[in-house]
Amino acid sequence: MSGISRSDNSLLARWWRNIDHWTLGSIGLLIGFGYILMMAASPAVAQRIGASRDVFIFKQVMFLSIAALTIIFISMLSPQTIKKLSIIGTFIAIFATAYTLVHGMDIKGAKRWIALPIMSLQPSEFLKPCFAIFTAWLLTEWKRRFYIPGIFVALGVYGIILFILKSQPDIGMLAVITAVLLTQLFINGLNMFWIFSGLGGMVAAFIGAYIALPHVRSRVERFIHPEVGDHYQIDTALRAFGNGGLWGRGPGEGRVKDLLPDAHADFVFAVAGEEYGMIICCIIIFIFCFIVVRTLLKLIKEDDPFIILAASGLITGFGLQAFINMGSTLHLIPTKGMTLPFISYGGSSALSIALTIGMVLALTRRRIEAPQFFKNNNQPFSKRSILR
After folding, report:
1. What whole-number distance in Å separates Cα of residue 201 and Cα of residue 311?
2. Contacts of 18 (CB under 8 A, 6+ apart)
3. Who's near 99: CB < 8 A, 6+ residues apart?
4. Residue pLDDT, tens place only, 69-90
5. What is the pTM (predicted TM-score) of this model?
6. Which of 124, 142, 251, 373 is the 20 to 30 A CA-CA neighbour of 150?
7. Taking Cα atoms as reference points, which of 182, 197, 195 lies closest to residue 135?
């Protein structure tokens, strides 16, 4: 597409000229790693559960293909369209997440999924990007017009989300959404007293979860006291990294995928470490860091508060999810069942992350001011940006 003429004014040509090619290329690399690691990790998992050897590969190819198309489609939309869709999407996702409490699938003691014909849908995954945009809109309106209680509406909706996710329970998802909200409040200029109050609330909530939820208490105690409890998955994952060394054992030569039930999902990073070595793991980490840092650097030049709040919230959730997955696999934090964006197996995760990145690309596209002849002679032209 590099040969597109500057005179070509089609939608695809304008999109290609204004999109962030570096971020788009980095996402393409992550999707490529996702394909490779799924072919390495999933056949053994499928055989272990008595399914067809290639079932997870075929499904993930479909999920990632749909995710790639979603990124392209969403990144073509205007910020106003993304705002409207996200407001609607927030309430749909809240309703669907609440629906899981009544009719959801119970897996390992948690009701987070809705059974569909070809996949299990986790509605809370879509809360992350939609709620980030929804909050950015409310905070922007609150700052522009103080009579609009945007911050109180955002906190009220967050309270509903908190109750639903605590009931599932899904403490990891709640932690990510909370971190995104606090980041947006901080960037929006909220008094530091309230920021620290929110952090204090997170600590109190963590202590409450530790006391009230046995599975949270078990994970924390096993992290703090490695000699106590069952550490089979973590110990196996750490041995995989050690076996892989610098260059890895080679494609298909790893053994961790034969031992871990979640080798294709939560522990796919261990498969990368064993078969492709520390070099590839560092490249994957670098790609995630590059996407986050590049997005934040682009926002420094942005003067639209909505775009700043929305994109910073989206990229915070993206980066935090990657950190939680890799950190728990490396035993840097207590284990948490959270996917590695575009690399771990999962339809809901792939589509929600695609929605996130598509929105980030749309919000950070290159824009120019409207030319003079676009102005109305009778009304002053509002200061807004348009696509080339």
Report:
1. 25
2. 365, 366, 367, 387, 388
3. 114, 123
4. 999 999 999 999 999 999 999 9
5. 0.85
6. 124
7. 182
